[in-house]
Amino acid sequence: DIYKYFISRWRDDGGLILQADFSQLELRVFAAIAGIRWMIERYQQGADLHTEMGMEAFRKTREEVLANGKLLRSAAKELWFGPIYGEGWKAIKEVLEQKHKIKMTDEEAKALMGSMYAKMPEYDQYKAGYEQLLDQHAAVWTPFGRRRYLPMWFSREKWMKARAGRQAGNFIIQSTGSDMTSWAWVILNRWARENGIKSKLIISVHDSLVWDVYPGEREIIAAVTRYVMEHLPFSFVRNWPVPILADIEYGEPGGSWGDMDEIDRGVIDQHEGQIITLPQYQSVAATCDRMIA
C-alpha cells in the first residue's frame, strides 16, 4: 500500500496525517443542480446512496454491502455513472465485470438502469437544459461561472455529438465539485497562515484535502476543516436543498496516510466543542460569513 509511505514530517513528535473528504460530493452536486427530488429527500434523511444502490443492484443486505472492506459499496459507485455522466448499461456492465469481477446479465443491467431513471423524472429536463445551452452557445457553464466550449456538438457525426453531450454533463458536475474542493483549500490555507497554525495542507486528491498535522493541532484542524467544507461561502451552495458533508479520517500519532480510520461525526463534534471559543476557530466562521456577504 503506497499510502503507508506518506508520513508526517513531525512523526517522531506525534504528528499525523489527516484527510478530509467531501461525502459523495458529485452525487450531491448532481442532485442539487438537476433538482432530483428523490435524491434530495434521501440525503436530507441522512441516507448513504452508494450503500442503497448496492443493496438494490446486488440484492444484498446493508450489512453484506458494507462487509469485506465495502467492496460491493465501491462497485455500486460505478452505477451512478449512468445517469450522471451519460454512460449506458453496456458500459456499466463492462466496468463491473472488468474492474470488480461482478457478473451481471444484459437484462439485469438494463433493468437496473431503467429503475434508476424511473426514480429521477427530473433528469430529462436537466439534460434538455444543458443541451439547449449547447445549441445556443456551443458551451455549458457551472454555478461558479467556469465555462467549457464543445464545438463537437455541431458535428455531423452522431458519435461526436453524443460525446460532446456526455462531456457537457460531466463538466457541469465534476468542475463544480473541483471548484468546491479548491475553494476549501484556499480558505483553509489562508486561515492557517493568518492564525499561526503550524500544520500544512499537503495535497488535494479528487474531492479530499490532506493535512500534515503538527502535534497538538489535531482537534482544531479536524473541526475547522469540516466547518469550512460544509459551509463554503457561496450563496448557491448554501441554498442547495442537499446538505454538503465532509468526513474526517486520521490515525494514531506517528502513523501514516495508510493507517487512518474514519472518525465518527460525534467525535469531531467533541473536537469542535473543545476549541469553539478559540479565536482561531471563530476567525474561520467569520471569514466564511464575510466572503458570502
Description of the structure:
- With 293 residues, this protein is α+β, with helices and mostly antiparallel strands.
- 57% of the residues lie in helices and 11% in strands.
- The strands form 2 sheets. Strands 4-5-1-6-7 form a 5-stranded antiparallel beta sheet. A two-stranded antiparallel sheet has the order 2-3.
- It is globular, with a radius of gyration of 21 Å.
- It starts with 15 loop residues before the first strand and ends with a helix.
- 32% of the residues are buried.
Q: Number of helix segments? A: 14
Strand composition percent: 5-15%
Structural class: alpha+beta
Q: What is the helical fraction, as a range of percent?
A: 55-70%
Oligomer: single chain
Low-confidence segments, ≥5 residues, pLDDT <50? none
Radius of gyration: 21 Å
- Give the neighbour order of strands across the main sheet: 4-5-1-6-7
Characterize the biggest β-sheet. Answer: 5 strands, antiparallel
* Principal-axes shape call: globular
Distance between the termini: 45 Å
Mean pLDDT: 90
| Element string (H = helix, E = strand) | EHHHHHHHHHEEHEEHHEEHH
